[in-house]
Amino acid sequence: MASFATRQFGPVQYDDDAVVEFAGGLPAFERDTRFLLIERKELAPILFLQSLVNPDLCFATLPVDSLLPDYQLYVPFEELADLEIGPETPTSDLLCLAILTTPANAPATANLKAPVLIHRRLRRGRQIIQVESPYSFAHTLEVAAGAVEC
C-alpha cells in the first residue's frame, strides 16, 4: 500500500488501483495527472479530488446529480473516446463531478459547465468543457456553516 502526504488530510494510504489517471491533467494543472478520490462520511456527498503530484492541490467536488438530479452532459460520445465511454457504457461506471469554489466573501459555487468525468471501472478521468450547454461555471450553492475547504 502506498502513502502520500497531503496538506489537507495528512498522510493518506491508498492502493494503486484507487488512482484516477487524467492523461492531460486538468486545465491549468496539466502536470497533475494522478488523483485520488477521498471521501469523508461526515462531509458526504462532498468528494475530494487530491493530486498525487502536488500535496497542496485538492479540489472539493460534488456529484452533479446531487446538485441537479436531471443534469445532462452536452458532449458527443466521440469526444469521450479516450475514456472509453460510449452509448453502451453503464451509467454506474461513470462519475460526474462539479468542482466547488468557496470564495471568502461570496457564496460557494459549483462548476457545472466543465464537470470532471470519471470512468470508475477504468480509473480514467477528464474535465469536460461543454461549450453548448445551458449550465454555468459558477452555479451558486447554499453551503452549511463550517464547510471544509481544500
Q: What proportion strand? A: 35-45%
N-to-C SSE string, H for helix and E for strand:
EEEEEEHEEEE
Flag low-confidence runs: none
Quantity of strands, as a count = 10
* Major sheet size, sense and barrel closure: 8 strands, antiparallel
* Helix-and-strand structural type: mainly beta
Shape: globular
Radius of gyration: 15 Å
Percent range of helical residues: under 10%
CATH structural architecture: Roll
Number of helices: 1
Overall residue-averaged pLDDT value: 91
What is the CATH homologous superfamily assignment? BH3618-like
The CATH first-level class comes to Mainly Beta
What does this structure look like?
Strand 4 and strand 5 (47-51) form a beta hairpin. Strands 3, 4, 5, 6, 7, 8, 9 and 10 form an eight-stranded antiparallel beta sheet that branches. This protein has a two-stranded antiparallel ribbon with strand order 1-2. It has a single domain (2-140), classed as BH3618-like, CATH 2.30.290.10. The protein has one helix at 64-67; strands at 2-6, 10-14, 19-21, 34-39, 47-51, 58-63, 94-101, 109-119, 124-127, 139-140. By secondary structure, it is an all-beta fold.
